[in-house]
């Protein structure tokens, strides 16, 4: 694997002895899930040791429980392998003494480092006492410079916990080992005619990101993000604690992609502070415990991001949109019959557009529905302002019975109890009714 480049994408790169890892190295000194490389900031990379037996070393220093930010020129030792962090334009195969290629895997990051682009020193065997110390002495000048930066980083990493703002608000009474570093769920269904892909990520900052594509097929695309609340993060942890998921094997595979000329793949990877659970199901029936977690994650993302429409076909979404648009037209025509009809028309037109959100190209009716929505919203706004004026007039004159009736009309005009306009009107109605009650001598 000397000179092999592994670029760190949004889902990270997990390294270990198990074949389920992104980088699998058959080394007895490695743990099954040894360490994890993740994106950090705009162009950075960090490494986290996954409670490995023999540890992860950065520039000769063993990592603890904290992650370590990496920079071009850094050297990571895992088992008998040395990994160098280099820039995107750096040479992929540094040469060791004697002309042999050093056993080095590089990670693209920032600008190229002269320390990596030059000749690499032979790595001392991890099994020989003092090997790492001798390597550090041989490269003492480079190490001193590296440790200077590491010391600056340590000021942050070793700071008291209370002095650092937590990236993700901890769930109440949550055990440290249960804290979520990242979650990745991927679904791919592909054959000779189309590719359907769905990816859901949650990072340590609690940001949910869902990307969905169906090409060429129905040519539908979704890419949405949202910051999760503390309550939502607690729901995610509850989903991952469903019975049987922790006991699943790393892989469940059936017919090969080559034989079937098709792929149906599901993968769930959960990274906690002291463990990794990575399960792949490919071209075979899902275990019940896996299916329950997968379906719960899909439902969670649909509800949080409002993208549940992706579960329907293009034809079904067109049908739902047409039905909603017809309801909107009916309520618009009857807007003088009942006060709430105008609000219902607005909601129906919004629903009709929502069903068309993931459809590309947009059908001809899309522009027409947008125009109808704008027309209905404009009239609702005008009628609301006119009605609110009548309320103010009655209250200023002290005509509480008229104010009560006008406020009831205002609540009917905007019937959604979550709408701020309804909340305000209802609060004023309660106040007016209390005044009327006191005027009659009531308590």
Report on this model:
The structure is a single chain. This protein has a seven-stranded mixed beta sheet with strand order 14-13-12-11-16-17-15, covered by helices on one side. A five-stranded mixed beta sheet has the order 2-1-3-4-7, with no helix packed on it. Mean pLDDT is about 80; it is low at about 95-105 and about 110-175. It has helices spanning about 115, 130-140, 140-155, 230-240, 255-260, 290-305, 315-335, 340-355, 365-395, 400-415, 420-440, and strands at about 15, 25, 35-40, 45-50, 55-60, 60, 70, 75-80, 80-85, 105-110, 180-190, 195-200, 205-215, 220-225, 250-255, 265-270, 275-280. It has eleven helices and 17 strands. The protein starts with 12 loop residues before the first strand and ends with a helix.
Q: Which regions have little confidence, pLDDT < 50, spanning 5+ residues?
A: 93-104, 108-174
Overall 3D shape: elongated
Instruction: Give the percentage of residues in beta strands.
Output: 15-25%
- What is the residue-mean pLDDT, rounded to a whole number? 79
Q: Care to count the β-strands?
A: 17
Q: What class would the helix/strand composition place it in?
A: alpha+beta
- Rg over C-alpha atoms, rounded to the nearest angstrom: 30 Å
| Largest sheet properties | 7 strands, mixed
The helix-strand sequence is EEEEEEEEEEHHHEEEEHEHEEHHHHHH
Q: For the terminal residues, how far apart are their CA atoms?
A: 84 Å
Provide the spatial order of strands within the biggest beta sheet: 14-13-12-11-16-17-15
| Number of continuous helical runs | 11
């Amino acid at each position: 694997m000397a000179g092999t480049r592994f670029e760190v994408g949004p889902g990270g790169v997990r390294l270990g002895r198990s074949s389920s890892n992104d980088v699998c190295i058959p080394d007895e000194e490695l743990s099954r899930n040894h360490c994890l490389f993740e994106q950090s900031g705009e162009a950075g990379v960090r490494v986290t040791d996954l409670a490995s037996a023999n540890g992860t070393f950065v520039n000769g220093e063993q990592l603890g429980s904290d992650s370590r930010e990496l920079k071009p020129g850094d050297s990571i030792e895992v088992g008998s392998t040395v990994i160098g962090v280099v820039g995107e334009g750096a040479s992929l195969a540094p040469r060791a003494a004697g002309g042999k290629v050093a056993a080095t895997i590089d990670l693209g990051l920032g600008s190229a480092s002269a320390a990596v682009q030059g000749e690499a020193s032979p790595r001392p065997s991890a099994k020989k006492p003092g090997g790492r110390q001798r390597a550090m002495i041989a490269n003492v000048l480079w190490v001193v410079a590296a440790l200077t930066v590491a010391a600056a980083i340590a000021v942050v990493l070793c700071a008291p916990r209370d002095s650092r703002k937590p990236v993700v608000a901890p769930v109440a009474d949550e055990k440290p080992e249960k804290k979520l570093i990242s979650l990745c769920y991927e679904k791919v269904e592909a054959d000779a005619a189309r590719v359907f892909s769905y990816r859901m990520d949650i990072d340590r900052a609690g940001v949910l990101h869902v990307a969905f594509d169906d090409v060429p097929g129905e040519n539908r695309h979704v890419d949405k993000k949202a910051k999760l609340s503390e309550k939502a993060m607690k729901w995610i942890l509850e989903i991952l604690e469903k019975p049987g998921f922790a006991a699943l094997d790393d892989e469940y595979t059936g017919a090969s992609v080559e034989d079937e000329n098709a792929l149906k793949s599901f993968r769930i990877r959960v990274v906690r502070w002291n463990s990794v659970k990575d399960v792949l199901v490919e071209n075979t029936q899902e275990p019940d415990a896996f299916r329950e977690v997968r379906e719960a994650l899909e439902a969670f993302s649909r509800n949080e991001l409002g993208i549940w429409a992706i579960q329907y076909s293009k034809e079904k979404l067109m049908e739902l949109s047409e039905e909603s648009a017809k309801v909107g037209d009916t309520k618009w025509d009857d807007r003088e019959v009942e006060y709430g009809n105008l609000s219902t028309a607005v909601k129906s037109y919004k629903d009709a557009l929502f069903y068309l959100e993931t459809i590309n190209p947009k059908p001809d009716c899309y522009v027409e529905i947008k125009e109808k929505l704008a027309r209905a919203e404009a009239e609702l706004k005008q009628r609301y302002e006119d009605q609110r004026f009548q309320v103010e007039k009655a209250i200023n004159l002290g005509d509480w019975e008229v104010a009560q009736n006008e406020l009831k009309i205002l609540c009917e005009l905007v019937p959604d109890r979550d709408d701020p306009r309804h909340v305000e009107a209802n609060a004023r109605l309660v106040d007016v009714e209390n005044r009327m009650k006191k005027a009659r001598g009531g308590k």
